[in-house]
Amino acid sequence: MPSSSRQVALITFDDVQVLDVTGPAAVFGAANDAAGYTFYRVHILSPQGGPVTSNCGLAVVTKPLASVKPGAMDTVLVAGSSRRSLQALTQDRDAQAWLQRACARARRYGSVCTGAFALAACGLLDGKRVATHWEATDILGRRHPGVDVDANALYVEDGRVWTSAGVTTGIDMCLALVARDLGDAVANAIARRLVLYARRPGYQSQFSTVLAAQEKADSPFARLVDWIRTHLDGELDVASLAARAGMSPRTFHRRFTDALGETPARFVETLRLDHARTLLQTSMALKTVATQTGYATAGQLSKAFARRFGVSPGLFRAMHAEHAE
């Protein structure tokens, strides 16, 4: 048992995305329960203190930044908020100074969702690879060209800096922080307690192809997309899909790309690889996974999988096997 708790600052603003605060707080609280003592002492802070109104109307009770010594923080995380609230930080020199001092002395610091804008405005992300919500990646990159924005990752660790894409990904990132401090067994116990399907690795994409397709339910290809999802082991080349849609291959390719934002081949590959990730979390043989996801050989699947996710199917399976223990 450590001689003192590790101090965690969760910094909020008006219009805060409530899950950016409650998600990490729940993880750190569950870590204390799993450890059997107060390993993390969480401080929910805002520039002035008092109730902060969240994006969904719930009030978050906070303490003022000035009530906590910045040099005492082990971990500093800034939650996401509205553009208006984050811009107000640029006019608050006291809040900026506190954040800069706290992050300079902390063992690690970072953000959830658009909290990255607050760190970037303080010069705390220069030269760092970071994640933020997918809707804000282009803006962050344009506004702060010295920041290397990863538009795809769920969360990113770059030295002492940890940043996540936002909302539920803050939970994933904080589970990774707990795993670093207390081990995978504790992090896995927390994930089970929070009834999470799986601990998601940082390199996993922010985007769900299935969700994106469902958002376009009025698309003329909605039924075809549902059919593709249930026939991933079949022949899904452009000619076959075009015939099923009653179009010429050229017309089908153009209209499908316009409707769904990616080519038929890319769309099919994404669905196949997403399904492969699910199957790799079972004991199914790699050759069988390849067959069920439409790849002629395990080697073809491995090549496509590594190209997309940056890890081999074998390494992916080993990582998730460790997380399941």
UniProtKB/TrEMBL annotation:
One of its GO terms (molecular function) is DNA-binding transcription factor activity. Keywords: DNA-binding, Transcription, Transcription regulation. The keyword Mitochondrion does not apply. Residues 222-319 form the HTH araC/xylS-type domain. Pfam families: DJ-1_PfpI, HTH_18. This is Helix-turn-helix domain-containing protein. It comes from Massilia cellulosiltytica.
